[in-house]
Amino acid sequence: MSEIVPPEVRPKPAVPAKPSHVAPPSSGPFVPSPQGTGGEGQGSGRGSALLGYIGIDTIIEQMRKKTMKTGFDFNIMVVGQSGLGKSTLVNTLFKSQVSRRSTSWSRDEKIPKTVEIKSASHVIEEGGVKMKLTVVDTPGFGDQINNENCWEPISKYINEQYEKFLKEEVNIARKKRIPDTRVHCCLYFISPTGHSLRQLDIEFMKHLSRVVNIIPVIAKSDTLTLDEKIEFKQRVRKELEACGIECYPQKEFDEDMEDKSDNDKIREAMPFAVVGSDKEYQVNGKRVLGRKTAWGVVEVENPNHCEFSLLRDFMIRSHLQDLKEVTHNIHYETYRAKRLNDNGGLHPISSSGQDTQESNL
Q1: What gap in Å lies between CA 75 and CA 136, rounded to an integer?
Q2: Beta strands of the chain (E only): which ranges?
Q3: Is residue 46 part of a domain?
Q4: Does the residue 298 lie in any domain?
Q5: 353 and 172 in contact (C-beta within 8 Å)?
Q6: pTM higher than 0.85, yes or no?
Q7: pLDDT per residue as tens digits for the range 32-42
């Protein structure tokens, strides 16, 4: 009988250690699935046990560094009657003089006879991150005796920015980074009447909610008592629901239960009752932004006084990126699909490269 030779035992390949300069992932160590096969990708979607540190978690740091270098764009539009504090609120939101009136408006300027579109751009830097902020103002909206179809210039402007982006996108030799002038957020200012929405408010939001992210706010809410504010907010929500108007964040865009839970709280708080001010006052030994009245100082960032801090945290600190993504993936894609469909699509590109035709957009 021949002697049985045991199989050759090969040493395991050396696995590089985790570099000392890479911080551990915040979400904890990777826990492999029990079905893992030890590194052989079978394409079944099951987790694999890692034999050592690879460095996948550094992608977040890579993205952060790239964003800090290139910066990003954020375009906000403010719509409402004159005298509702639109410029003041925007300046308060970004703690800078960024509104049109702060930069180029003169007190001799008269109310325009028709709706005009004016914008002002600024570069804001915080914590090493640069943001190009563009504030689009709409002087003349709702200020005339006859305001019929006064939202049309605004709708036209929004679609023009989609068209501009689309033309750059379909160019054969397009830019590496297409300038983004699309409106990511529209703050709609509601007069603090305490009664109900005007027909103009309803018509504007009904037409524009399909093409832009609308966030309704009750301007100068300190003119209402607490009870009046609560009743007015409830009445506005009921009217919006009755008219089938969905403001941002829309329910159909909730991706999971966590998003739904967070967004439900925001939807219940809408419209935000806000107060804007760029003046500081001394309150209890500290300097605060506020409006001084005969009864005391209305503190802008005090949640017991108004909902400014809730609006700021929602719009800038938690949903700014989502506002940009919904604009690109929903509103812009809807416009793009309709535009190309109405136009018969793009012209075919010749394989020889000599007879290449550009889109007739």
Answers
A1: 7
A2: 72-79, 118-126, 129-137, 185-190, 214-218, 272-273, 280-283, 286-293, 296-299
A3: no
A4: yes
A5: no
A6: no
A7: 444 444 444 44
How many domains in the chain?
1
For the chain, the C-alpha Rg in angstroms (whole number) is 27
Helix, strand or coil, per DSSP, at residue 322: helix
Whether residue 317 contacts residue 328, with contact meaning beta carbons closer than 8 Å, is answered with: no
State how beta strands 72-79 and 185-190 pair. Answer: parallel
Residue 210 structural domain: 57-343
Residue 315 near residue 308 (C-beta atoms within 8 A): no
The per-residue pLDDT for 63 is 87
Question: Quick check: is 50 in a domain?
Answer: no
φ/ψ (deg, to 5) at 188:
-105, 120
The amino acid that residue 166 corresponds to is: L
- Encoding tokens for residue 330? 């929903």
Which alpha helices (H) appear in 135-290, and where do they start and end?
152-170, 199-208, 226-242, 257-269
Which string of b and e fits 137-175 if b means at least 16 CB within 10 Å? bbbbbbbeeebeebbebbbebbeebbeebbeeebeeeee
β-pairing, 129-137 vs 118-126, is: antiparallel
